[in-house]
Amino acid sequence: MDAAGILGTGTALPDRIVTNHDLEKMVETSDRWITERTGIKERRQAAPEETTSALSVKASRKALEMAGLTPQDLDLIICSTISPDMPLPSTASFIQCELGAPDCCAFDLAAACSGFLFGMTVAEQFIKTGKARHVLVIGAELLSRYVDYQDRATCVIFGDGVAAGVLGPVESPSGILASEMHTNGMFADHLFIPAGGTARPASCETVQARDHYIKMRGNELFKVAVRSLEEVSRRVMQQANVCADQLSLFIPHQANQRITDAVQQRLGLPPEKVYTNISRVGNTSSASIPICLDECVRSGRIKKGDLILLSAFGAGVTWGAVLMRW
Ligand code: UT7
Question: What is the pTM of this model?
Fold first, then answer.
């Protein structure tokens, strides 16, 4: 049986750059605090007319082109997003229509920052069982629409961005070697949007209370993130009988540079084996890992045969890892 691997990647970032100095004019913060506490210098922000689906289509076209495939070759589209175009229908439906893949099933997946890895793992099952040959997995977030620009604890962190990967059968020894997905709803209140759903439908009161925006208990999340990322990374390496020394590259979710550094040290990896781009794009939730992947592939940082570890952690809380050979 063939393994499932990534055949092509693509990214679409909004043009507008929001620097730390821009944020200094909006909330009580400083370039120094943001740089030291998060590693972020700037992030992207979508223009009002840009949508999650429109950027997804751009990224998907690039991924399909790299894979040498057309939208008609797709059997399934999975769009990982917590910032959909609208609550109904799925953003994946808009993407499917705009891409021009009329016979292809498409749905959204909500696992926050872990969503791209959850999507890859779902895609892998379809490909390995022969139920699908080519699966488009997209990590798509316009979190600027859900960020409160009066809340300095969150508005400095999140950025907009989309990236896609086309998965399909690949020849051994390439492909996904091991993967894990986890959820612990005990920590659901650590990162959430209180209103706008069935629990608290939109009303004047919820809007006035600014409860349609992201609320985060960053400090508590930080500790859970470091612990979970280390554990799940070790588990997938163990499953595939691989040790950290053998890794060519580690791409963690870009949540905070200090989280990345802590996990890198705990895993005993040299810094040059860890990819980060958080200074340029901030935390783009489920788009963060595929944006990194695409940058690495296009710059030649990832080469055929490389052993790559991807690990993510996010709201839910959710966490997971994928170990793959390129
Ligand atoms: O994407 C996956 C899920 N997300 C995460 O995993 C996020 C994990 N958490 C983090 O990245 C960090 O916790 C943050 C960057 C969010 C915050 O950094 P921190 O070092 O944990 O700060 P803190 O929340 O403990 O706050 C320390 C101080 C507080 O002031 P006092 O109470 O000590 O006077 C905050 O009010 O820093 C203050 N603060 C700020 N000051 C300047 C919080 N945000 C800012 C800010 N600028 N933007």
Answer: 0.97
